[in-house]
Design goal:
19 strands, single chain, globular, Aminopeptidase, 5-stranded mixed β-barrel, 2 domains, alpha+beta, OB fold (Dihydrolipoamide Acetyltransferase, E2P), N-alpha-Ac-DABA-like
Length: 322
Amino acid sequence: MIENDVLHILGKKVGLGQSATVSFNVAKLHTQNTIDVPVIIERSKKPGPIVLITAGIHGDEINGVEIVRQIISKGINKPKRGTIICIPVINVFGFIHMDREFPDGRDLNRVFPGIKGGSLASRVAFKLVTEILPHADLVLDFHTGGADRFNAAQIRIIKGEKSLYELAKIFGAPFVYYSKNLNKSFRNTCHKLGIPILLFEGGKSFNIDSNITNTAVNGAKRVLHHLDMLNRKFKVSEPKKECVYIADSKWIRAKYSGMFKATVKINAEVKKGDVLGNITDPYGSFNHFVKAPNNGYIFNINESPIIYQGDAIFHITTKLKE
């Protein structure tokens, strides 16, 4: 809530031109130690939009946390006008243990909008949705791929949202992937509340990749510049390549178990029949070449050296949006 240009958030009042770090607390550790989840608020003297920047919904997605950390450490979060709220680590419990889920075993991104008296994850979701999210005019949420699966830098939006399409284009990631909002996800909750959200995916769990980080930070700067919120001291670069809009895609799955090595690079454009990698065994008895089933772009690669029959090893586009 904003009254007379004062932001009322998590029990604190933050006026125009002020900075504040507010604690977002839901529960203690089992040792009774408190955990402070910092919510970092920067407000310009000039009123304007409120942008919420989040990461760490999954505790093992370190690259997303690093992206928001850089936005803060470089001062990108200090707006020329309006307000920027940063939460670098939402699932601090998982971050401490390097675990995707909460200690209660639940995936935070599958319990939104949460319940006040529900599970630990559900309580965190509820507090985020009721006490922070209503302030936001736009959300930038940063994620990474799962364990051993390296995602190309991409923005995920649903079809038919013209405003999100324009913002995704401005962000300038190599790919925009049209995907449905998952039930009980943070993105779906934002959609239901009418709050536009750009979900960024890039890299993989337990990993920090400088190319992914740079792409995301530069994209955030472009969006803030578009909103006339970016401080004048920051330069805005043009995207390195034209964005590819993915209308449909499919996973290429391993036909055999064995030792796996991808030879194609992430973001690569391939033709039907191109060799993407190979599967072998420890004894040199066979060597199976994995080939592209169609023309398209490779935007996810499984980097595990050991795979099993049926494992998803490449994500390839099958239909692009004109």
